[in-house]
Amino acid sequence: MASTHNEFYALMLVVVVGSMVASCGANFNQDFDLTWGDHRAKIFNGGQLLSLSLDKVSGSGFQSKKEYLFGRIDMQLKLVAGNSAGTVTAYYLSSQGPTHDEIDFEFLGNVSGDPYILHTNVFTKGQGNREQQFYLWFDPTRNFHTYSIIWKPQHIIFLVDNIPIRVFKNAETIGVPFPKNQPMRIYSSLWNADDWATRGGLVKTDWSKAPFTAYYRNFKATEFSTSSSNSFSDAAWQSNELDAYGRRRLRWAQKYFMIYNYCNDLKRFPQGIPAECRR
Ligand SMILES: *[C@@H]1O[C@H](CO)[C@@H](O)[C@H](O)[C@H]1NC(C)=O
């Protein structure tokens, strides 16, 4: 009996480990390219830390060398401190082309002491218009916090410090496209958008405070294998659904911190709210 059990557990272990391609400690030099902004994008501490900055001339950005098709992506960010009004720090996954898919975090800066807005969106086949916005329950400029995306064939989950704030479910059965065929890269950029970002564009960037700088560390990508038709790995895959605790945290974040939800914006969709909101 015992040996049967041991064999079973050994098999389980092989299956579980096999279904997650290893994701070793981040090294920005290895995993990312600095794509624009010249000296404004920097990697230091031997690849452990990355910074982007923005001045009156330009912003800056980076992107992952690899493309991902499903997985969990974690990154710690410390946002532009002080008067960050008009600045936007975008951190997202995206494929290429006119019918691209995209999963977005965007951090809209504010004047000192006023709250950032965390803006989220999901594009499928080139179409977005699925914004949800949140305040954060902490000051995102004081310390690093972890922002994560779990992307599976069944759903996309946005997390902040491991607390789920948004779930976008696969609703293909009711005709809503879901990102599942186009691999995506990770992108980030820091740029100026003072025509809309802060209080809808009322507050402009104070360039006397430039350069504005955001920091990144502890990148981690965990890829889920999609090739296996093994029922054990299907089980491992499913077990990452939100449990009761996760669902409670999600409700908490949405109840107390969500400030905009496209699903409730009836004015914007006179022909009726999008299908995925009606379920
Ligand atoms: C900035 O602060 C104002 C006042 O508290 C608030 O209405 C707004 O949502 C904040 N965030 C942004 C990005 O405008």
From TrEMBL:
<dbReference type="GO" id="GO:0071555">
    <property type="term" value="P:cell wall organization"/>
</dbReference>
<dbReference type="GO" id="GO:0009834">
    <property type="term" value="P:plant-type secondary cell wall biogenesis"/>
</dbReference>
<keyword id="KW-0326">Glycosidase</keyword>
<dbReference type="InterPro" id="IPR013320">
    <property type="entry name" value="ConA-like_dom_sf"/>
</dbReference>
<dbReference type="InterPro" id="IPR044791">
    <property type="entry name" value="Beta-glucanase/XTH"/>
</dbReference>
<keyword id="KW-0378">Hydrolase</keyword>
<dbReference type="InterPro" id="IPR008263">
    <property type="entry name" value="GH16_AS"/>
</dbReference>
<dbReference type="InterPro" id="IPR008264">
    <property type="entry name" value="Beta_glucanase"/>
</dbReference>
<feature type="signal peptide">
    <location>
        <begin position="1"/>
        <end position="26"/>
    </location>
</feature>
<feature type="domain" description="GH16">
    <location>
        <begin position="22"/>
        <end position="216"/>
    </location>
</feature>
<keyword id="KW-0134">Cell wall</keyword>
<dbReference type="GO" id="GO:0004553">
    <property type="term" value="F:hydrolase activity, hydrolyzing O-glycosyl compounds"/>
</dbReference>
<comment type="function">
    <text>Catalyzes xyloglucan endohydrolysis (XEH) and/or endotransglycosylation (XET). Cleaves and religates xyloglucan polymers, an essential constituent of the primary cell wall, and thereby participates in cell wall construction of growing tissues.</text>
</comment>
<feature type="glycosylation site" description="N-linked (GlcNAc...) asparagine">
    <location>
        <position position="110"/>
    </location>
</feature>
<keyword id="KW-0961">Cell wall biogenesis/degradation</keyword>
<keyword id="KW-0964">Secreted</keyword>
<dbReference type="GO" id="GO:0010411">
    <property type="term" value="P:xyloglucan metabolic process"/>
</dbReference>
<dbReference type="Pfam" id="PF06955">
    <property type="entry name" value="XET_C"/>
</dbReference>
<comment type="similarity">
    <text>Belongs to the glycosyl hydrolase 16 family.</text>
</comment>
<dbReference type="GO" id="GO:0048046">
    <property type="term" value="C:apoplast"/>
</dbReference>
<feature type="active site" description="Nucleophile">
    <location>
        <position position="102"/>
    </location>
</feature>
<dbReference type="GO" id="GO:0009505">
    <property type="term" value="C:plant-type cell wall"/>
</dbReference>
<dbReference type="InterPro" id="IPR010713">
    <property type="entry name" value="XET_C"/>
</dbReference>
<keyword id="KW-0052">Apoplast</keyword>
<keyword id="KW-0325">Glycoprotein</keyword>
<dbReference type="InterPro" id="IPR016455">
    <property type="entry name" value="XTH"/>
</dbReference>
<feature type="active site" description="Proton donor">
    <location>
        <position position="106"/>
    </location>
</feature>
<protein>
    <recommendedName>
        <fullName>Xyloglucan endotransglucosylase/hydrolase</fullName>
        <ecNumber>2.4.1.207</ecNumber>
    </recommendedName>
</protein>
<keyword id="KW-0808">Transferase</keyword>
<dbReference type="Pfam" id="PF00722">
    <property type="entry name" value="Glyco_hydro_16"/>
</dbReference>
<keyword id="KW-1015">Disulfide bond</keyword>
<feature type="active site" description="Nucleophile">
    <location>
        <position position="106"/>
    </location>
</feature>
<keyword id="KW-0732">Signal</keyword>
<dbReference type="GO" id="GO:0016762">
    <property type="term" value="F:xyloglucan:xyloglucosyl transferase activity"/>
</dbReference>
<dbReference type="InterPro" id="IPR000757">
    <property type="entry name" value="Beta-glucanase-like"/>
</dbReference>
